[in-house]
Amino acid sequence: MTTTKRRSVKGGAGEAVDAHERGKGYLSPGEVEKLLKAAKDGRHGDRDHALLLLMYRHGLRVSEAINIKLSLESTRYYLAHAKQFDFRQRGYLWMYDEELWTEARTFLPVVRSFGLPVEELTASEVQKKFAVLDDVSDLAGATFTPFDGRLSPHRLRTHYINHAQAGGVELLSGWQVVGIEGEKSPYRVTMRRVSPRSIKRALTDGVATSNKPPKEPADELVVSCDRIINAAGPWAP
Ligand SMILES: Cc1cc2nc3c(=O)[nH]c(=O)nc-3n(C[C@H](O)[C@H](O)[C@H](O)COP(=O)(O)OP(=O)(O)OC[C@H]3O[C@@H](n4cnc5c(N)ncnc54)[C@H](O)[C@@H]3O)c2cc1C
Q1: With 0-12 CB in 10 A as exposed, 13-18 as middle and 19+ as buried, what is 112?
Q2: Which residues surround ligand 1 with Cβ inside 6 Å?
Q3: Distance between CA atoms of residues 95 and 223, nearest Å
Q4: Looking at the whole model, is its pTM more than 0.85?
Q5: How many CB atoms are located within 10 Å of the residue 23 CB?
Q6: Burial of 9 (C-beta count, 10 Å sphere; 0-12/13-18/19+)
Q7: What residue ranges do the domains of the chain occupy?
Q8: pLDDT digits 0-9 by tens, 45-57
Q9: CA 82 / ligand 1 centre spacing (Å)
Q10: Which helix (H) or strand (E) holds 70?
Q11: CA-nearest residue, atom 41 of ligand 1
Q12: With contact defined as beta carbons under 8 Å apart, do 97 and 139 qualify?
């Protein structure tokens, strides 16, 4: 395989595409105030204001705000296939200490604006509702979302895989993406075969140990594609 200079497609050199048109890449507190006011004056003022405030205070990306909506849609889907995913709608209890409780409550108007019912509970209400909790002395409050639940992640994953394959998706399991090249489509994605043993080592001893160069050169695969979706998890490069 020939090696060419690799470049991260996402983000390039870390500059925004319109960087040449603006002197800085962030908003000043005064500009944020104006943005928040403009949101409040809009058609869905309370919701938009609360959503922007939430993003500003907690440093959320747009994708994270979208996550609230996505989670809601997902739960509706799980409900519709409850038996298949072993979905049990038992609710979700989040408990907070004094410091986090004030912050957590700023989320509530946003969450409710999306139609998700949220109960606010005092420490004694938590104990009444969940008798199994015998010490709530360090609790400032809690939220309970009865719409939430738990399911079998394995069944859900299998369902998604089957669905994708039925739609013509080819799954490459056991390959690690080690490089993405190209300034524009088509991109070249280079993958290296990962042995089941090194996956096991990563799970038991940690990634640093498993990143040791293999004794034998691993199989490589190069795929050309028009689009790339980076879904490599929270630490995705
Ligand atoms: C302990 C714990 C408990 C959790 N409990 C819950 C819970 O109760 N409810 C809930 O909703 N969420 C929970 N989460 C969060 C949930 O697991 C994550 O939000 C979710 O898994 C994220 O999915 P993802 O597909 O974005 O990323 P991931 O599930 O991380 O998937 C990313 C995939 O990309 C692969 N990958 C990474 N790099 C490469 C590469 N270079 N080449 C090829 N493949 C690559 C990884 O192997 C992995 O399979 C929990 C998380 C943790 C850690």
Answers
A1: middle
A2: 176-177, 231-233
A3: 46
A4: no
A5: 5
A6: middle
A7: 172-225
A8: 887 888 888 778 7
A9: 22
A10: helix 62-80
A11: 177
A12: yes
